[in-house]
Amino acid sequence: MVNNLELIKKYADKLDKAIKHLNFSFNRIINLPTNPKLLDDLQMEMWESFSARFARASEIYLTKYLRAIIISKDPGFEGSFRDLLDFAEKNSLIENVDEWLIIRSLRNITAHDYTESDLEIFFINIKKYAPKLINIKIIY
């Protein structure tokens, strides 16, 4: 059985790789238009890669890494996702619950179909919140 410190290390390593990939994609889309009507196929592919990497990094951070750290601090923790974020904020693991709820909701909508205007709003938002993920301080 894997102990909690090994689990934190495992998820920290995965998160570190996911953040590096997200940062690479972020740098590729940073100057691209967010309006899908203005994108060629290659640019759209860059946005799609970026959104997938955003989803992966946020998923690893919120459901794996952060949960493992919280359980190391409170082995009996069994709260909801919101409880997890509240605990993380109280323990200075995150700054603002509401921002992380938004990031989670953005992660949840990556698999949906969009109208062009919805897609533009989605691109604007993941571009806005990506630095929050990219700048996570990973604790081993």
Descriptive overview:
The structure is a single chain. The protein has a single domain, classed as Four Helix Bundle (Hemerythrin (Met), subunit A) (Up-down Bundle). The chain is elongated and about 50 Å long. The two termini are 19 Å apart. The protein contains 5 helices and no strands. The chain has helices at residues 4-29, 41-73, 81-90, 97-108, 116-134. With 140 residues, the chain is mainly α. The longest helix is centred in the middle third of the chain and has 33 residues, at 41-73.
CATH topology term = Four Helix Bundle (Hemerythrin (Met), subunit A)
Number of DSSP E strands: 0
| Helix residue percentage | over 70%
CATH architecture: Up-down Bundle
User: What is the element string, with H for helices and E for strands?
Assistant: HHHHH
| Total domain units | 1
Global structural class? mainly alpha
Strand-residue proportion: under 5%
Task: Return the average pLDDT rounded to an integer.
Answer: 93
The Rg value, from CA coordinates, equals 16 Å
Overall geometric form: elongated
Intertermini distance: 19 Å
Question: DSSP helix count?
Answer: 5
Biggest sheet architecture = none
Q: Give the CATH class.
A: Mainly Alpha
Low-confidence stretches: none
